[in-house]
Amino acid sequence: MGLSATSTARHGALSPSRKNNSARSSISPKPTHAILSIKPVYAEAIFDGRKRFEFRRNIFRENISVVIVYMSSPVMKVVGEFSVECIITDDVEALWCQTEAHAGIERDAFMDYFTGRDVGHAIKIGNVKRYDQPRNLQEAYGVRPPQSFLYLKGSSPWD
């Protein structure tokens, strides 16, 4: 994968210590995809359109455009993906007010999830694609299921 003009320009502006950090090197493209572990009840709600926001206590540091959905136990398969429209970060009460109509989760469960947190994050779900055949995460990506999420360098093998 070639370097974009933007990444080249940023690389030139980096401090010498950052230039030598292989994890941040412009030779290695920044991830655009992330795998999220999502409980089956919420993953199903995403794919049938009842849930238009995916809530997280911690959010990406990279600019993620596509989320690969790993449906957690008992399914334990990669079942599809969705594009990221935007990410809303706000205090928990304000976040609920902004998302409740399409949260796909009851208020009590939402508040329980964010217990002990002042700020929460909502990934606004764009286009959704359910794969024809669920895939094994290890076989498809060579990774183990993430606790929350993990970055992928590149795109899904089903593009």
Short description:
The chain is α+β, with helices and mostly antiparallel strands. 26% of the residues lie in helices and 33% in strands. The chain is globular and about 40 Å long.
Structure description:
With 159 residues, the protein is of the alpha+beta class. It has 2 domains: 29 residues, no CATH class; 122 residues, Archaeosine Trna-guanine Transglycosylase, Chain: A, domain 4 (Roll). It contains 6 helices and 6 strands, in the order H-H-E-H-E-E-E-H-H-E-H-E. It has a 6-stranded mixed beta sheet. The radius of gyration is 17 Å and the shape is globular. The N terminus is likely disordered.
Order of strands across the widest beta sheet? 2-5-4-3-1-6
> What share of the residues lie within helices?
25-40%
Tell the overall outline: globular
Report the count of strand segments: 6
CATH class of the largest domain: Mainly Beta
Q: What oligomerization state is this entry in? A: single chain
Average pLDDT works out at 83
Low-confidence stretches: 1-26
Order of helices and strands: HHEHEEEHHEHE
Structural domains: how many: 2
Tell me the distance between the termini: 16 Å
Total helical segments: 6
- Say which CATH homologous superfamily of the largest domain is assigned: Hypothetical protein
CATH architecture of the largest domain: Roll
What would you call the structural class? alpha+beta
Q: What does the largest sheet look like? A: 6 strands, mixed
> What's the Cα radius of gyration?
17 Å
What's the CATH topology label of the largest domain?
Archaeosine Trna-guanine Transglycosylase, Chain: A, domain 4
Strand share of the residues? 25-35%
